[in-house]
Specification:
With about 375 residues, this protein is of the alpha+beta class. It folds into 2 domains: about 120 residues, Immunoglobulin-like (Sandwich); about 200 residues, C8orf32 fold (Roll), CATH 3.10.620.30. The protein is built from 8 helices and 17 strands. β15 and β16 form a beta hairpin. α2 packs across α4. The termini are far apart.
Length: about 375
């Protein structure tokens, strides 16, 4: 992954999917729970396997959270010798299909149902959110392969939150720091890798959602705050007219998006998405916006504590070990994965890999 160099900034500081929404200057970005929306996702893989043994793993929605996400059933059709829903032990689920050596293409089509709604947490009213168990708190404050919580990550986090009076101030300081210090890099492949220690060591704080939101998660964990990435897929346009914050058509093959959450005692899991603030700056028409523009300020204000329900969550998982795979674990599972003859295909090249994903909102 090639990223341009930059110096770390000073520490401180849907309906129908083909529909496009006109930009309304008076429509502030303010997601509010207002009812569930149901979606059908169809992922189709067809691989010319040239006689070699082939395996495919297709992620399916595996997140059910009472206020904002409901995973539904997944079904499939295939010419594989065997296929089943499996899990990796960290919460990720996927359809795993296997073809023995032989002629003909490997074909697998997975249909998944899921429901979502807008989400907003009242940050001024500490409630009675379910406390995390010791196991959950340990899981969501622990390091992973690409999210260390010591060294430069810990040192950076300590500088950001020094003097903060409580956890919500810590969480907000980290959010503001990521927004102010990073940039979205259009040259980053896919959603990025999320190698946050390398980002901090090189001073290159550019990337996409799996870089910038994972940076938030790592800094939060290093500050003692439980935090997690949420890997998923945009499935509908933004109802607020932001072209950059939704799917532009029913073809969502390249619409993967990683969000983040931080756990705050009394409030529970709080949604955060600093990467989408940076996406608006770079991509939102007329593509000359800055952090000072009202359209960006609205999004920045909202994406600490809320997000739109035009997106389906797959899982919270890191270091995903795929059963039967020859290659090692994936840093996360947000794209279809496949191996032909023991060689993993490039999941970020769907035209070569030969997979497509479509989304449809269901009514009635």
């Amino acid at each position: 992954m090639h990223l341009s160099r930059r110096t770390i900034m000073k520490l401180g500081g849907a309906a129908a999917l083909a529909t496009t929404f006109p930009r309304l200057a008076s429509a502030a970005f303010a997601p509010t729970p207002s009812g569930w929306r149901r979606f059908r996702l169809v992922t189709r893989v067809e691989i010319a396997r040239n006689g070699a043994e082939t395996q495919v793993w297709i992620p399916i929605p595996a997140v059910t959270e009472a206020e904002w996400m409901r995973a539904g059933d997944s079904t499939w059709s295939t010419n594989a010798a065997e296929a089943a829903i499996k899990a990796d032990g960290t919460g990720a689920q996927f359809v795993h299909a296997v073809w023995p050596a032989g002629s003909g293409p490997a074909v697998l089509e997975v249909t998944s149902l899921a429901s979502a709604q807008d989400r907003a947490v009242d940050l001024t009213a500490s409630g009675e959110a379910r406390p995390l168990s010791e196991a959950e708190r340990r899981q969501f404050t622990s390091a992973t392969e690409l999210i260390p919580t010591d060294g430069i990550v810990r040192d950076t986090a300590q500088q950001i939150v020094a003097g903060a009076e409580d956890d919500i101030e810590k969480a907000r300081r980290i959010y503001d720091w990521v927004v102010d210090s990073t940039e979205r890099n259009p040259e980053t492949r896919g959603c990025g890798l999320g190698d946050i220690a390398s980002m901090l060591k090189t001073g290159d704080l550019t990337g996409k959602c799996a870089d910038l939101n994972t940076l938030y998660v790592g800094l939060a964990r290093a500050s003692g705050l439980p935090a997690r990435d949420v890997y998923g897929l945009r499935v509908a346009p933004s109802a607020f007219g932001y072209k950059s914050l939704g799917a532009g058509s029913s073809n969502v093959t390249k619409a993967q998006h990683c969000r983040a959450e931080v756990y705050l005692d009394g409030l529970g899991w709080v949604p955060v998405d600093p990467a989408d603030v940076r996406k608006v700056v770079l991509e939102e028409p007329p593509k000359t916006l800055t952090l000072q523009d009202d359209a960006v300020r609205d999004v920045r204000r909202a994406l600490f504590g809320s997000w739109e329900g035009n997106w389906i969550a797959y899982n919270f998982s890191h270091d995903v070990a795929l059963p039967g795979a020859t290659d090692g674990p994936l840093p996360f599972l947000m794209y279809p994965a496949a191996e032909v003859g023991g060689v993993r295909l490039d999941e970020l090249a769907p035209d070569d890999f030969r997979y497509s994903i479509t989304a449809e909102e269901l009514t009635g």
